[in-house]
Amino acid sequence: MNGLRWMLLVVVLSLLVPSLARAQDRGTIAGQVVGDRGQPLQGAQVQVQGTELRVVTGVEGRFRIPNVAPGQRVVSVSLLGYGTRTQTVTVGAGSEVPVNVTLSPTALALDELVVTGTAGATSRREQPAVVSTVNAAQLVETAPVTSVADILTARSPGVSVTSSSGSAGTAQQIRIRGNASISLSNEPLVFIDGVRADSRINGRGIGVGGQSTSRLNDINPEDIESIEVVKGPAAATLYGADASSGVIQIITKKGRQGAGRFSQSLTVEYHDIDPNFTPPDNFDLCTAAMVAPASINPLCRGQAVGTLIRDNPLVRDNAFQNGSLRSLAWSGRGGGDNYGYYVSFGSDDEQGTLPNNGYDRRTGRLNFTFNPTSTLTFEGRFGLSRVVNQLPDNDNNVYGYMGALLGSPLSRTEDGSGANGWFAANRNTRTIQTRENELLTWRTIPSIEVRFVPYTWFSHRLTVGADMSRNEATAFTPKSLIPVFSTTLDRGDINEVRTSYDQFTVDYLGTLRREFGSASQLATDLSFGLQATSERDAWVSANGNGLTTNAARVVGAASTRTGNQGYSLQRTLGYFTQLQLGYLDRLFVQVGARLDDASSFGNDAEPFLLPKVGASYVLSEESFWQNSLPWVNTLRLRAAYGTTGRSPTSGAALETYDPSPFAITTSSTGPGVLPLNPGNLNLKPERGTEFEGGLDAGFFNDRVGLEFTYFNKTSRDVLLRRPLPPSLGFTQNPFANIGEVVNRGIEVALNAQLVDSDRFSWGARLAMNTLHNEITDLGGIAPFNVTTAINRHAEGYQVGAFHLLRIRSIDTVTNRVVVSDTLEFAGNILPTYEGSLGSDITLFRNLRFAGQLDWKGGHKLLNLTDLFRETQLVRSDARLDPTKLSKHERLRRFGNETPGQPSFVKEGGGNATVSEVRDAYIQDASFVRLREISATYTLPRQFASTFRASGASITLAGRNLALWSDYEGADPEVISGIGAGNGVAVDQFLRQDFLTVPNPRRFVARVNFQF
User: How many Cα neighbours within 13 Å face the side chain of 184?
Assistant: First the structure.
């Protein structure tokens, strides 16, 4: 042991002592980075090429890089939204070399570095596949965003974000280039600084209907520098079998090495949250008993029998009120000659628009960078968050507020007794809010990254990290003195679920780089490495019923107690290599492969190979191009082909059994098992092969930038459950690799810096994409529905597309409505086209206006709320008022209402009911939304100094300000049921709006001080 300690000491001293000894013989590079109007540029990255010496500019755009070896050095300066610049300087021993760099804004930056989907930080010109970058740090300064999902919404073509509810703290569903799987999750992988992160949509332990939470909401946007999105083949080599649905990399902020000073930022923010929703009235017809003089119903008493009355218990009870968000964010940055640090604290306290809906987030982060030598860098990161999410009962939930939309005005009473217009007796705002659903999460994300460049041609990177969370979900129904919910729940009920979820990542990358030729015409980069991940999910639940008192909110205080437990562990190991050839820094060819192994398939399964190949060619840098199209100053052609996949959950290939008691005697039982799943030892991961090709073009000195991409992805070996004969005794069908799904489309991103002057600048962004999603093979399995929904998996259509009995003809004379004999396609669940248009205008350098408009179309949504209100529990005037709809429309919605006659008649004979024919309620969900508008005023420095600040700004903004849509429900962008099945495939294809709270409108005031 002593020998090992001495060996470690020698290694440390060998790294540190030579550095200290040579410090006097080295020089310093210092200077300032400004824009082309002379304005200081904060956050620019300055690096001495071929070394680990890199710093970030401070508030005044200044930087300082010490410990630079003497000789000729190349300094590279880059910043998102600006063109990269390099400058060659000669450094002398003990000297300080001034370097001042001017960056110009550009709509197309081929020299910008990306780290996701690449073997090390790579410039865009070298990367054959598209990696989209969102400048989160700049966006958060002005835009009204509160989550990662808000940052991603409508920012990158091909990335689609959908809300599950307008309640505070609920999840969003993210899709990158559509659905590729039928049985597995289609959520993208998420990494935070190279460490695989928990991004699950979680409904475990809280009975709130279709609302769920997302672990992505835990991350404070104030801590994010940028977000990179890998959509296609670029994910194959580095992320392997789980990257089929894309990769999202969140890059957090860093300190400022060489800054020599400590800077702070303090932000105070307030949101006024408008429900932006008026619940529809409930209708009913007065009966003889209700119109009688002794009637307790004030709406019908004294009216004629059959009078149409209305009531709105949600409005009458003031259930929806304006919510609020109070936010405080502080961060500090600083550093010295060979170290830098970033530290932050964030507090967000949101009260939703319903009484028992809240989201309380506390976050902290410490990032530290240390350069003991010019060839060695340590980066330590630690993120901590505590989140308390309180969700109201809603969606398809008999205990929810929105269930009031199914209440009858006939139950209205003057003294408020009984149902009083609500769905059931004694269920109103006062009693519903007594049910408490709370999720408490503690989450830590520690990581360390080591970068070592022993030679300019040989570099190493090692990342080790974890994402560990502890969740406590509690659903509590208090002991009631009067019947409110049910005989069982009114005795006092508490359900607790404790979850431990841990993900560990070890990632090593080595790169060898050699240049050949007198002018280094040919460059080769050989990268190799491994990536190991481990995912552990352990949970235990307990339910107690019959509490002695409401103060004792523990399962142990209940008279009846039950429990359950679950555990899973999944490991993956991948080895990868990539060879890149570059010619004249304009033509690049990449060839790579990854060998993956996953515990899902058991110990005896063979590893599987995931290859990729790609090319990038900057055509505009050829001599013949210079005079051909002078207004097209940049043109890059690119193409990539790669293989990705998706592994099933742990043990999916194995034969399993279900524990079940068996009778020993008439009065005693023993433990036994029943066959559950026969397994499939030949199970493989789903495999996606994708081609991506396109171009990047810059016009008018890169003032206008265009990205065009065509993608075509075929997912083979898609996992489906192959039906077994019941006689075999297994209660669950095994997975088999028998399906095939195709996704293809185009993506267009257009950025323009239209005007750029001291007094006026104007930029604009346009993004669009299309999507064709289709099941091309079900492996001989007959089309089947998603649970009991009308979303169906069938060859030739979108995954989970709507299928039902379609209306063939409507005869308004005979009241005859003819429908198809079999289920037919009725609409897509995913938009077939999306787009966004954004613009920002700056006046006199200190007043900035920004806005964004986005749209989706080509898909439909099941308006289950109106279906129930019109055909099941009839509460809508559309059904009760014969003058509300035309006769044709009434027949389309309700069929023949003549007593004794069938509602709908099938073509080939037979009848159908309203529940089977929902044609009128599969509604166009296309929309255009004014997503956000903001105005930011940067105070003159003399005014900021009155607060002892070096800078200050004020922002006024709004989010979800207007909506244009033909959808008949409240909000076509909100889908109930996302993640209700804990993120598995059962619920991810449901596209229905069922008693769901729409997205609220937010008005934001924000003040920022910099010190």
Answer: 28
Q: Is 620 helix (H, G, I), strand (E, B) or coil?
A: helix
> What single string gives the DSSP state of each residue in 104-121?
-B-S--TT-EE-TTSSSS
Going by pLDDT thresholds of 50, 70 and 90, the confidence category of residue 981 is very low
Here the tokens at position 516 are 């050949």
- 3 state DSSP class of 218: helix
206, amino acid identity: I
> Are 100 and 142 found together in one domain?
no
Q: d(Cα 827, Cα 834) in Å, to the nearest integer?
A: 16
Q: Do 474 and 566 fall into the same domain?
A: yes
Q: Are the C-beta atoms of residues 588 and 581 closer than 8 Å to each other?
A: yes
The model's pLDDT over 150-187, given as tens digits with 9 standing for 90+, comes to 999 999 999 999 988 999 999 888 999 999 899 888 88
Place 10 in a pLDDT band, splitting at 50, 70 and 90. Answer: very low
Number of domain units in the chain: 2
Confidence of residue 24 (pLDDT cuts 50, 70, 90): low
pLDDT band at residue 63, thresholds of 50, 70 and 90? confident
Residues 152 and 48 in one domain: no
Give the range of the structural domain holding residue 92, as residue numbers without chain letter: 2-104
* Length reported for the chain: 1011
Supply the pLDDT for residue 982.
42
CA distance 461 to 35: 33
CA–CA separation, 643 vs 608, rounded Å? 11
Give the containing element (helix H, strand E) for 138.
helix 136-142
Residues 45 and 178 occupy one common structural domain: no
Integer-rounded Cα Rg, in Å, for the chain is 31
823 in a structural domain: no
In order of 137, 669, 727, 784, the CA distances from 675 in angstroms are 54, 19, 12, 24
- pLDDT above 90 covers a percentage of the chain that reads 56
Phi then psi for residue 218, to 5 deg, are -70, -25
Residue 899 lies in a domain: no
CB-based contacts of 16, cutoff 8 Å, min separation 6: 372, 373
Give the per-residue SS3 of 743-797. EEEEEEEEEEEEEECCCEEEEEEEEEEECEEEEEECCCCCCEECCCCCEEECCCC
- Is residue 536 located within the same domain as residue 617? yes
Residue 371 one-letter amino acid: N
Sheet with 54-56: strands ordered across: 54-56, 45-48, 71-78, 85-91
Q: Please compute the mean of the pLDDT values over residues 263-281 and round it to a whole number.
A: 95
How far from the centroid of its chain's Cα atoms is residue 727's Cα? 43
**Rounded to an integer, what distance in angstroms lies between the CA atom of residue 338 and that of residue 532?**
31
CB 123 within 8 A of CB 523: no
Are residues 539 and 414 both part of a single domain? yes
> What does pLDDT average to over the chain?
88
Range with the poorest average pLDDT among 11-15, 266-270, 415-419, 747-751 = 11-15
Which residues share a beta bridge with 890?
none
SS3 content of the chain, % helix, strand, coil (to 5): 10, 50, 35
Q: What is the pLDDT of residues 669-718, one digit of tens each?
A: 777 777 888 888 888 888 888 999 999 999 988 889 999 999 999 999 99
Strand 62-68 and strand 27-35: the pairing is: antiparallel
Distance of alpha carbon 39 from alpha carbon 322, whole angstroms = 41
Give yes or no for residue 2 having a pLDDT over 70.
no
Distant-in-sequence, close-in-space partners of 213: CB < 8 Å, separation ≥ 6 = 169, 170, 171, 201, 202, 203, 206, 389, 391, 439
CA distances from 24 to 15, 28, 339 (A): 16, 11, 18
This prediction has a pTM of: 0.90
Distance from CA of residue 40 to its chain's centroid?
A: 34
Among candidate residues 359, 137, 143, the one with its CA nearest the CA of residue 269: 143
Say whether 235 sits in a helix, a strand or coil: helix
Question: Which whole-number Å values give the CA distances from 653 to 143, 572, 685, in the listed order?
Answer: 47, 15, 10
